[in-house]
């Protein structure tokens, strides 16, 4: 039974990945339409739980996916590129509003958290200055592990000061990492910097920062709508979108809660179901205009499919928790990087030095979620999978052989001389790979990983799956070893 379940999940993640890539292939270089999401939605609608998986989890996932598509399709058929980042933030806001109404104790716990925030000037001030001056180097503000500079690192310390139920604490920490309760989860420090720039004192700036940190818990929906007005969102009526989404997923959310689905999981499933549509967008079409950029995504997809197909044929896909997913795309990305003689340590050095230079140019750079950090970590992890033992795993993961032959067979990637000066085409592939540094989740593949995580949640819905507690062996710690002193990871991976 374990083998059939694992194969079923493997088939599901390959289907969603191929559905995503086929849309991009058809439309790259063209104008985006919301209706382009339809094939991905159809793939999600075809998903069915295994007998060991929670029906309520799948129902919430599918209901959320349909709600996200139909609501936005009813409001607009085009989303401006600058509005795309906010497509994966309204879902958790709606879920928190539902949970506050469903569970008054959870609502009271949020009030307790807000009181703790009000008394945590020391922590907030220390962290906002650390980010402002680049003390930790590159950071990922919504990291899934409590790394230095991440929002979950700050909240983990704040929550140590209050006495609330452990499951509620997990939910709050998760909501400022993977789940992102309001867009302020990726904007920490913004109000502080705005206040300083306007001539206010440090104490006044900390007060301004605390106000939005409190409001994002007390009134998630109102806070999110206000932030969208402040950033100039104009693609559709954002307030109407959140309120309608809340209505559409209300029943499925409550049913899942009553079936024992952990609140951390409840806050993630709608986000993953409706939020990953943003990977089909105008910016994706523009990025993939280039043949090499698209060839990278296509070859990663082919490597994933072939690896899982081979594992099924060899009878190695036996454990649902050990299915090669992001490990394959990381290996393929690292392999492409190595074709032109680059390594993750070179990329880390380049981007870290660039980061400090940008901080000197404009301190506001710290406002932006630095996905460059995750890009380098991703490449570093891929190198570990492809390196020969004892330095690496020798193109294996979970005793499954990672098949990277689709990269060598790809006509575009095999002929970089067609896209550069033919006499010395030794950088063009890497240059195209670097285009993904600002959006590495195309390489990791959010549609695939989010579905896989949902499938695993459906196996143990009453247990929190995120945030992680283990050390992620981040590249920044190799670059700045003392950085580990500020990390709150609790164990080895």
Q: Please tally the β strands and state the result.
A: 2
Q: How does the helix and strand content classify structurally?
A: mainly alpha
Q: What is the number of helical segments per DSSP (H or I, 4+ residues)?
A: 23
Q: Please give the radius of gyration in angstroms.
A: 22 Å
Average pLDDT level: 95
Order of helices and strands: HHHHHHHHHHHHHHHHHHEEHHHHH
Question: Strands of the biggest beta sheet: in what spatial order?
Answer: 1-2
Q: What oligomeric assembly is this protein in?
A: single chain
Biggest sheet architecture: 2 strands, antiparallel
Spans of at least 5 consecutive residues whose pLDDT stays below 50 are: none
Provide the domain count.
Answer: 2
Strand content: under 5%
- Give the % helix: 55-70%
How does the overall form come out from the CA principal axes? globular
Cα(first) to Cα(last) distance is 28 Å
Structure write-up:
The protein has 23 helices and 2 strands. It is mostly helical and 493 residues long. The chain has 2 domains: 1-29 and 288-444, no CATH class; 53-282, no CATH class. A two-stranded antiparallel sheet has the order 1-2. α1 (2-27) packs antiparallel against α22 (446-459), α9 runs antiparallel to α10 and α10 crosses α11. The radius of gyration is 22 Å and the shape is globular.
What is the topology?
Layout: H1 2-27, H2 38-45, H3 55-75, H4 90-102, H5 104-118, H6 121-132, H7 151-159, H8 166-174, H9 190-197, H10 202-218, H11 220-231, H12 238-258, H13 263-275, H14 282-287, H15 291-313, H16 326-339, H17 344-361, H18 371-386, E1 396-397, E2 400-401, H19 405-409, H20 428-434, H21 441-444, H22 446-459, H23 475-479
Antiparallel strand pairs: 1-2
Helix pairs in contact: 1-2, 1-15, 1-22, 2-3, 3-12, 3-13, 3-22, 4-5, 4-12, 4-13, 5-10, 7-8, 8-13, 9-10, 10-11, 11-12, 13-22, 15-16, 16-18, 17-18
């Amino acid at each position: 039974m374990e083998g059939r379940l694992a194969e079923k999940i493997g088939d599901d993640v390959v289907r969603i990945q191929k559905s995503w890539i086929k849309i991009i292939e058809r439309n790259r270089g063209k104008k985006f339409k919301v209706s382009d999401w339809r094939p991905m939605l159809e793939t999600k609608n075809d998903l069915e739980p295994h007998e060991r998986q929670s029906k309520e989890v799948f129902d919430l996932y599918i209901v959320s996916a349909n709600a996200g598509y139909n609501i936005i399709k009813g409001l607009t058929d085009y989303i401006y590129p600058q509005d795309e980042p906010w497509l994966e933030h309204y879902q958790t806001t709606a879920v928190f509003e539902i949970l506050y109404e469903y569970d008054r104790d959870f609502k009271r716990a949020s009030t307790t958290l807000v009181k703790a925030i009000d008394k945590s000037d020391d922590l907030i001030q220390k962290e906002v200055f650390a980010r402002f001056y680049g003390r930790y180097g590159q950071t990922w503000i919504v990291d899934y592990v409590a790394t230095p500079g991440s929002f979950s690192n700050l909240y983990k310390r704040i929550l140590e000061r209050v006495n609330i139920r452990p499951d509620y604490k997990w939910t709050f920490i998760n909501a400022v990492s993977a789940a992102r309760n309001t867009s302020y989860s990726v904007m920490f420090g913004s109000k502080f910097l705005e206040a300083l720039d306007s001539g206010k004192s440090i104490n006044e700036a900390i007060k301004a920062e605390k106000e939005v940190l409190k409001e994002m818990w007390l009134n998630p929906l109102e806070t999110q709508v206000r932030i969208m007005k402040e950033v100039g969102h104009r693609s559709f009526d954002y307030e109407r979108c959140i309120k309608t989404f809340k209505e559409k997923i209300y029943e499925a959310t409550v049913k899942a809660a009553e079936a024992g689905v952990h609140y951390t999981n409840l806050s993630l499933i709608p986000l993953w179901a409706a939020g990953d549509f943003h990977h089909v967008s105008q910016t994706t079409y523009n990025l993939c205009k280039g043949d090499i950029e698209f060839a990278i995504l296509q070859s990663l997809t082919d490597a994933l499919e072939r690896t899982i197909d081979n594992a099924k044929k060899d009878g190695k896909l036996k454990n649902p928790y050990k299915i090669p997913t992001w490990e394959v795309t990381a290996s393929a990305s690292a392999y492409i990087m190595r074709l032109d003689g680059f390594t993750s340590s070179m990329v880390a050095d380049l981007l870290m030095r660039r980061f400090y230079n940008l901080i000197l140019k404009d301190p506001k750079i710290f406002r932006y979620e630095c996905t460059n950090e995750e890009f380098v970590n991703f490449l570093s992890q891929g190198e570990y999978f492809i390196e020969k033992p004892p330095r690496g795993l020798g193109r294996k993961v979970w005793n499954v052989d990672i098949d990277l032959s689709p990269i060598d067979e790809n006509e575009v990637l095999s002929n970089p001389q067609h896209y550069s000066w033919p006499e010395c085409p030794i950088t063009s592939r890497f240059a195209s790979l670097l285009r993904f540094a600002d959006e590495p989740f195309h390489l990791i593949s959010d549609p695939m990983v989010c579905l896989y995580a949902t499938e695993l949640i459906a196996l143990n819905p009453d247990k929190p799956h995120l945030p992680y507690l283990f050390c992620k062996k981040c590249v920044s710690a190799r670059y700045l070893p003392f950085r580990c002193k500020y990390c709150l990871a609790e164990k080895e991976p």
